[in-house]
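Recall that a protein's primary structure is simply its ordered list of amino acids. Everything else, from secondary elements to tertiary packing, is in principle encoded there. The following example makes that idea concrete.
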Amino acid sequence: MSKARKVDPRIIRTRHLMRDALVSLIDERGYESITVHDITDRATINRATFYLHYRDKQDLLISSTDDILEELITNLEMTDTAEVSFADLEEPPSSFVGMFEQIAKHADFYRVMLSKQHMPYFVMRVQEVLAGFVQEGLSSVLAKDNELSVPREMVIRYTASAFLGVMIWWLENDMTYSPKYMASNLLRIATKGPYTNNPF
């Protein structure tokens, strides 16, 4: 079996420059008003270099989104959900901690796309990734629908939307809490609720 060819580090660097330029421009002006010239000028590259990698600014946006979310999915897959225990929430699954670590690593990208400019394509993609993660986790502990009091899809969508809302809140508040703290407490809310003594 042949090994996958490594991407030239210079290509990776050039693509990162263009992605960073795109994000900073979206933050400043919004996506619609940006041109390829704006991106190349901000990234300090020429137009010919841009078109070696991307067809247009939308291609750059979609490719950047795919790269970020592929990395997020990789982090979420670090733990076998069948081995997850909810007994010790102080030590959350590494995949869940990894999710917040990856968000912190690309905080500017997530902050602009999810919060400041609320880019619909990116928001939708993140929701789908989170829904898949929730679905897998739910299936590992509650395999049968008759073990749920509401439709499974409702639980998945509710939980994924809650996770997304907390992610945005964390970013908007400059990530005050550590990734491990976020993972531990979000998992606690999702599995046991937010109460020290349930009042209901």
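DSSP finds nine helices and no strands in the chain. The domain at 61-192 is CATH 1.10.357.10 (Tetracycline Repressor; domain 2).
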